[in-house]
Design goal:
Radius of gyration of chain B: 19 Å
Radius of gyration of chain A: 20 Å
Structural class of chain B: alpha+beta
Largest interface: A-B, 44 and 45 residues
Structural class of chain A: alpha+beta
CATH class of the largest domain in chain B: Mainly Beta
Strand order of the largest sheet of chain A: 21-14-15-18-17-20-13-22
Order of helices and strands of chain B: EEHEEHEHHEEEEEEEEHE
Largest sheet of chain A: 8 strands, mixed
Oligomer: heterodimer
Helix content of chain A: 10-25%
CATH superfamily of the largest domain in chain B: Cyclophilin-like
Largest sheet of chain B: 7 strands, mixed, barrel
Shape of chain B: globular
Strand order of the largest sheet of chain B: 5-12-9-10-7-6-13
Number of strands of chain B: 14
Distance between the termini of chain B: 25 Å
Amino acid sequence: MTKLVISSISPASSVQDGGRFGAQRYGLTPSGAMDRLGLAAANCLVGNAPMAPAIEIGPYGAAFTARDGAVRVAFSGAPRSAEVGGRSAGWDTSVTIADGETLKLGMARGGSFSYLAIEGAIKGEPTFGSLAVNARAGLGSPYPRPLQAGDELGVSAASAGPERRIDLPAAGAGPIRVTPGPQDDEFSEEAIKQFLDSEWKISATSDRMGYRLEGPDIEHLHGHNIVSDGTVNGSIQVPGNGQPIVLMSDRGTSGGYPKIATVITADFGRFAQIPAGTSFRFRAVSMEEAQAEARKFAELLRTLPDRLGSIESFDLNVDALQDANVAGVAVSAMDAGTWQAADALVQENF
Amino acid sequence: MVPPRTPPRLLPSGDSAITVEFSRKIDDEANRRVLALDRTLAQEPIAGVTETVPTYRSLLVHYDPTEIDFPTLGRKLAQLAERPVSSSERSRLWRVPVAYGGEYGIDLEDVAKTLGTTPEDVVARHIAGDYRVAMLGFTPGWSYLSGLPETLHMPRRQNPRLLTPAGTISVGGVQAGIQCLAGPSGWHLLGCTPVRTYQLHREPTFLLEPGDRVKFYQIDAKTYAEQERAAERGEIIAELVRQI
């Protein structure tokens, strides 16, 4: 059988898919991709279902080698340099790794997680309908733990056919949008204002379970213990030390700290991509706006195939991006804003 | 006469979930209303609702905002929560074996000292409790029990432990717990059970349901070892005493 061998891989890399839903009532965390758009785009490029299992790659580099056949893969999410058999490839594209060839991916730039989808998807034994790794519960397939060098994934041999690229809308650069609650009444108006008006940073101790935030202390009105209740992706808990924790894909299904606000569905993946140490802000929106954005996001995922194009036109993009850099627009890995600027210039050049 | 009941609060948990809150405290009456609404939603599903998560005092209702919006779902949930709660609740009673003290429950001696009594008396008090599974959460199979005798109420540990063993039987505050997987805990460890409340590739994968009742009984080290081996093979060690 054709295999994709992991030659090296960043820590915090694992097989992830749409997640494991339906058993949160028993304490089973859903897991699943941190950035669903990145997962869906990578899968779309190789003709898989949007939430098919793929490799979620942490911030550092990775290398994959095809064995016993050629393997078609695609990458999306946080951009990186990509090189297969010595040829460089553009981001948000598919490439075919010939038998014995190696695909090398660099460090993530301006994001945290990238997705490597494999044509025909990853094969394994689903539990509760998912291959997603949940290391704490010993779940996930083919390995119930983060991936490491030497792991081998059974895959389908690459089909013939042209490589593709996908044109994704530029990620929003504004504040991360939240809806207040469910326990915003555990905080004073001043505390909520401080939460919304302050600049926050993601702590280096963050992981797939939760992102710890660094900023001013948010004070509680009635102490920090509430009777545990249910959590969602993006719940923003404020523990006793006043430093909020945003619950992510590997969250506990219940928690006992007041939740001041919740990241909206449409911004969850964008939030998950903010690298540790990078500053950002929150902005409160109405439920109407949050739900309208959730519907737009679902529509974006549904219509991703309309955004596929042939690989030739991508080469123009690479040239344009180089032109942008030559023209003096420095692209900083730490500042998503400069990515936006470079993107805008590329568009103008067209 | 049905006593007047306060309507639940409908709290938004982002754009894809609503917390239906019946109480802010640990309260068996509120928990019964949570479980009643949970059952109603299982029997009469609302299109767009994807999953429900009962807790002590609230029901978290996950939904798909492309199928139903917050005000529409909120109105429907408020109506369903008005339904009377049957007083003869269906419940199952499980007998759960526990090896107490020593290596099985490293806090038993300290708990006895704190309460000014003997370890044997702490075990007797723990066994005397009539427990109800109020919720499962945190990690797979972690069962939060109400019904801890008041004589065992005590604050949680100052310093939570980062790792406590699988099968831990513990108490914290006014709650008792059955912990399935190894993990962090700030509760006081009284013993260990060979019962797995969660076991993959076993039918059922999850043993306890919210609303189930639990009685503990004491086993010795030899029985623990035997039952532990049987549990590893996938046997259900807890005894189902009755199903009402």
